[in-house]
């Protein structure tokens, strides 16, 4: 029996939920229980405005019966609450039609290697002091106002399945997002994302945001047209979602530009992309997926060629493949994305661009057509004209209106420096370089 309080261990919670599903006659049950410790410090106009900490226990349960399947989640459960939750989940499942693509959970037992990126010092890190460093650094760089948020997360999770999977994992993250302003229309952006306290760089993120803000005073507009554009890692991680498009679910549903592209060249030969369960000394990660399959390394694009989709057991059965350890019960998804590095510094990349634009941040990325990758996005914060290899006047009023396939084939330069990116515009931890892409279509933003 499970204890009747939130103090129950995640192992007890998972075992109780699994037994409930089995007792109700479910043929497949996958249970992941985790406890999280989330802290946040928000700051605005050089002042800390919120310090918050939230601790939760969560439970995600997948069940199938008679080839019908469903998944649901509940939070801070009691024994009685878990009973009702699983019963209600089964009632909803019974109302569904049988799934044509049903596949049983993978059969274990499995061996999981190590754990995701974890640093116990993150939980008690001096977040207020880090935020003060960030603000001071931004102001020292030339900003008048500094705003943003610092979030930390510690997660421990445990999985049990009727396929025999049983495993524990844990991870930590520190995510700092900074915006600095020299004037209302002169702003800069900085990030520091890591799993390890020793790698956290709040002063550098603040200084980057403040310096960009100072250099963005009195921005100008440029004519619409095609330009060579240098994108920072922050932007690359957002506008080239190749890994998400490699999900077999997206390809099967026709919402990916990679439909019918397997083993075809989709990018320049220097382009490489991989998905990792756990990237060594990286950001976050997972040693098992939602079905209990061990995670690993999947080469998605190599030498510009689309090498592999991302699979769970359902899509693997459809395509005659093996699961890549990327479940998502409903849809396979990347875990940790790594773009390959190049052989040039960002500084030299700009020097090599004789006539172009430098874009440091973006938002409001919207797709006009998912199947061919046509999208638009609005540069946010600092953007600059590049003339004869130098950053000259700051720019305003731009919109990138292009397509992912065209940009993949127009990559001219890839930086050797890479940066971990995760924030509300990039939800999956991504190790990204800067890139210079030629012939990018820049249009006028609405209202400019």
Task: Name the descriptors.
448 residues; alpha+beta; PmbA/TldD fold; 2 domains; 13-stranded mixed β-sheet; six-stranded antiparallel β-sheet; 10 helices; globular
Helix content range: 10-25%
Q: Say how many strands there are.
A: 19
Sheet with most strands: 13 strands, mixed
Q: What's the helix-strand series?
A: HEEEHHEEEHEHHHEEEHEHEEEEEEHEE
Mean pLDDT: 96
Proportion of residues in β-strands: 35-45%
Spatial separation of the terminal alpha carbons: 64 Å
Task: Kindly name the structural category.
Answer: alpha+beta
- Indicate the radius of gyration in whole angstroms: 23 Å
Residue runs with pLDDT of under 50 for 5 or more positions: none
Total tally of structural domains: 2
Coarse shape: globular
Helical region count? 10
Oligomer: single chain
Short description:
The chain has helices at 10-23, 79-94, 127-140, 202-215, 233-239, 242-245, 248-253, 313-319, 346-352, 404-408; strands at residues 28-44, 47-65, 68-75, 145-161, 166-183, 186-194, 225-231, 273-276, 297-302, 305-306, 336-339, 355-359, 362-369, 374-379, 383-387, 390-394, 398-403, 411-423, 426-444. The protein is an alpha+beta fold.
